[in-house]
Amino acid sequence: MADLWQASAPETGAVPVSALFRARYPELVRLADLLGADDPEDIAQEAFARLIQKQQTLRDQDAALAYVRSTVCNLVRNRHRHLRVVRLRTPGGHDEASSEHAVMLREDRRELLAALAALAPRRREAIVLRYWLDLSEREMAATMHVSTGTVKSLVSRGLDALGQALEGKI
Amino acid sequence: MNTLEDRLREVLAERATVSPIDPDAWDKTVARSRRRRRFRWQWPARTGLLVPAAAAAAVTVIAVAATLLTGHGGLSSAPGAKSTRSATPGASPSVPPPPGRNYLVLREIPPVTPFVRIKLFADGHTVWTYLWFGYVPGYASAGIALCEVNDGGAYDGYSACTSGRLAAGVLARSAATDGSGWIRLGVTAPQVASVTAVLPDRQTTVQGVVEPVRGLPYKLWAVSYPVGPAARLVFRDAAGREVTHLDVPGEQPAPSRPSHGGIALFRYGNAMMTAYRISGDRIGFWTGGDSMWSDVPISESALNAIATGSIRSSTGSTPDDWFGYAPSGVARVGLRLSDGRQFGSRTIPGWPGSGVVFWGPLTLPSKIAMPGDIIVITYDATGHVLSEVPFIFLG
């Protein structure tokens, strides 16, 4: 792993991308994974490649992190679209297919993950950003490019939908 | 904090620990970024302006300004707002440049028309949408595709293609969205001069944009309104007379799994992928606790191909499993990749009288370029080809 962090980087802009990459790449891979990406690393690498292109226009590290998080969310939606999920919503059921995961997760957790995966994409994003990344409403709004009111609504509706889906199951 | 929130935190934290990390990730990211810079200077290859890298910058600016930015409308999603036009297309630094060939979709569906640039507002953010028409290489007979790339807002970088055809006798059709549900767009007849979305209260209207497309006998339209409600899109001519309208359904709740009548298709993970007819004469698929469903009736889309893209092996590779449905009378369905490889599946009967049969699953290589490269081929019982449809046209 050492080479990963020592590789030369195009550091010409205001934001040192390699430092951000070192600190945040695994987190962004996991974010893409939790949002249902079929190739989370590809998504995260693409997001950082776009960040390298845009680094001159970003004012600071926080803005860069918000940008790259937002890009991960967009790219996952984009990939779903390519996978014919515009009209056919797929829950990203890889948890079910993996025998490793199957033995790790208790049935109730599997039910919760399945219910999460069945949420509409924006609600799923809101839930993951809130309960996995622990972002504030303001940070979520910046990441999702929506108002804080929309964030509250998405989280609330997402929780309601999860509650309904899990009724009697957990 | 309630129990559900506690469980969510625990489950997400546990689930997030299993994502593999490639030790060469940074090198790959830097290489990807450098490839992008090189591609930027090759635009626009399609128009014959194959630009040497040394002269690229100046020529690119000229090409973009002179040949690509012919359309430039604007609209506001604020109720009742009027559309506005950019007075100086391409001149403002806030206006993003047209998409380059770093976008895979531009390489898959090269433009045969100039870009049409539209400025929209969605959920409080400005979105620049670039639209163009093109053909799936080698399948021009399948019809023209309408493609889009977004810049800005929640869907920054979003790209997609759908069929861009306006069938004879049809005056308007919705061809695509930006993926967020806010923006809808499509094609319409040449006599149409305006489009207005009328929201359910019949008081709120949102003005859209209608733009001509050089080289095509119809126009593009786009409108943005809050996601969720149903809307009537009214198309009018220059005199204000209604030419036609489209009723766009609002967001619908997830369907419940029917208690009976399912057709078991194949084993998926630890459960069976099972198809059901659901309300609206649509088709839904359930496996274990997961579900997916079509938003359109069978009659509107009797041929469909679906990639799960979600089965993960213990090695971390992600093969795409494909399945779908086809019109009754189809005995076999094939998926042809751009490199000529073809994968086929026999069909199994659907419900009597439903007009559909099912096919799959087909496991395609995990690293196919993109589904835009895939052609869905149907065969009858004697092996004759019934249709060859680019995947992007389905749905």
Provide an overview of this structure.
- Chain A has 170 residues and is mostly helical.
- Chain A is built from ten helices and no strands.
- In chain A, helix 2 (17-34) packs parallel to helix 4 (61-82), helix 4 (61-82) packs across helix 9 and helix 7 packs across helix 10 (148-166).
- Chain B is mainly beta and 395 residues long.
- Chain B folds into two domains: 40-248, no CATH class; 263-393, Sandwich (Immunoglobulin-like).
- In chain B, the strands form five sheets. In chain B, strands 18-19-22-21-20-23-24 form a seven-stranded antiparallel beta sheet, with no helix packed on it. In chain B, strands 1-2-3-4-5 form a five-stranded mixed beta sheet, with no helix packed on it.
- At the A-B interface, helix 1, helix 2, helix 3, helix 4 and helix 5 of A face helix 1, helix 2, strand 17 and strand 18 of B.
Distance between the termini of chain B: 41 Å
List the secondary-structure elements of chain B in sequence, H or E: HHHEHEEEEEEEEEEEEEEEEEEEEEEE
How many strands appear in the DSSP assignment of chain A? Answer: 0
Please, what is the oligomeric state?
Answer: heterodimer
Q: Which chains share the greatest interface? A: A-B, 89 and 81 residues
Backbone shape of chain A: globular
Overall mean pLDDT of chain B stands at 75
What is the number of helices of chain A? 10
Most strands sheet of chain B: 7 strands, antiparallel
List the strand order in the largest sheet of chain B: 18-19-22-21-20-23-24
Quick one: biggest sheet of chain A? none
Number of domains of chain A: 2
Strand content of chain B: 35-45%
